[in-house]
Design goal:
Layout lengths: L1 H10 L4 E5 L13 E5 L9 H4 L5 E3 L8 H22 L3 E5 L15 E2 L14 H19 L3 E7 L1 E3 L11 E3 L3 E5 L7 E3 H13 L7 E4 L7 H11 L5 E5 L1 H19 L11 H8 L3 E2 L2 H7 L7 H9 L13
Parallel strand pairs: 1-2, 3-4, 4-6, 5-13, 6-11, 7-10, 9-12
Antiparallel strand pairs: 8-9
């Protein structure tokens, strides 16, 4: 995501200071409007130079895998370090990237609509470490905006897809090399194409009306899971054997396993995610999604529809090419 955000900022004429973990070559590293700062978000003393003198910080970093402590350090502690560095440098404008994982999907009815007013997770211990740490991160970011003078925009992209990241968790569950379990086939996929999402993020940095807002970032024409999988199979060399599983049947199957684990074993059994209702609902429950608020606040209209996005993802066009303006 970060590479595309930088590319979009350059296309829109911004000067960009890029905070990176390592100094390996990136597609735009020689662009005259780019300055690269090597930082470690877990080491606060490396962050001062990176944020000094900037107009706004776009915070995309998070840890996606590992146990709770690993993800807490990489997501929450890293965010706290960044906010402290911003405060020391007198930088108050923050665009923070969260996730759809923060919603309480057990409380949203089947085929209900997910938007910015949907309830946040009330029992995070039943979710995975990623959802737990993103919820904490949102709290930390809001504290920066509400009580410490920060000008915060909180963005929640849906499932970001693009080149090399087409098959994803909401499309089903991979079993082995060729088997794909398709669950909740008629629900919409909460997708945002990576170039569309990058444009929304830069617009959030540019628009004063976005300050203080929490916005969901998803595209307009969201495919169902069935259409998504069929389209990918037509465009890619990956052709798994797809086994459909009825959502209602799986939901009813998961409930007694969860109750037995809770009542007889005090929740100590490590059940697979499909048998943990909170995780099952978050990943596969058939739902609908709305992007009305992000379109209104940002003046954003996703540039690429689903078919165009898949074509670009599977084509040979250089998605990160930046024209260099000369006088």
């Amino acid at each position: 995501m970060g590479q595309y955000v930088v590319a979009e900022a350059l296309r829109r004429g911004h000067q960009v200071r890029v905070a990176v973990r390592s100094s390996h070559a990136l597609p735009w590293h020689n662009h005259p409007a780019v300055e690269v700062a090597k930082v470690d978000l877990q080491q606060r003393d490396t962050l001062g130079v990176a944020v000094q003198g900037v107009d706004a910080v776009i915070h995309l970093a998070a840890t996606l895998r590992g146990d709770f402590q690993t993800q807490y350090t990489g997501t929450v502690t890293a965010t706290e370090n960044l906010l402290n560095a911003m405060r020391d440098a007198g930088v108050i404008r923050l665009i923070a990237i969260s996730s759809f994982s923060v919603f309480d999907y057990l409380k949203i009815p089947t085929n209900g609509v997910v938007d910015e007013d949907s309830p946040l997770e009330s029992a995070p211990a039943q979710r995975d470490a990623y959802a737990q740490t993103k919820l904490i991160q949102e709290t930390v970011v809001r504290q920066f905006g509400q009580g410490q003078g920060g000008q915060v925009t909180l963005l929640r992209p849906g499932m970001i897809y693009g080149r090399d990241h087409l098959w994803n968790a909401h499309a089903g569950m991979k079993v082995g090399d060729r088997l794909w379990l398709q669950i909740g086939a008629d629900g919409q996929m909460p997708l945002t194409y990576v170039e569309n999402c990058a444009e929304a993020i830069i617009l959030a940095a540019e628009r004063e009306g976005a300050i203080g807002q929490t916005l969901n970032i998803i595209d307009d024409d969201l495919p169902t899971q069935t259409l998504f999988v069929q389209t990918l199979m037509q465009h890619t060399k990956i052709t798994p054997v797809v086994v459909p599983i009825n959502w209602v049947v799986l939901r009813l199957l998961a409930q007694p396993f969860w109750q037995i684990n809770t009542r007889l074993f005090q929740g100590k059994l490590r059940l697979p995610g499909l048998l943990v209702p909170a995780r099952l609902h978050a990943r596969f429950k058939p739902l609908r999604y709305r992007n009305t608020r992000s379109r209104q606040v940002l003046g954003w209209k996703p540039r690429y529809d689903f078919d165009s996005a898949v074509d670009r993802s599977c084509g040979d066009v250089d998605l990160l090419a930046i024209p260099v303006q000369t006088n």
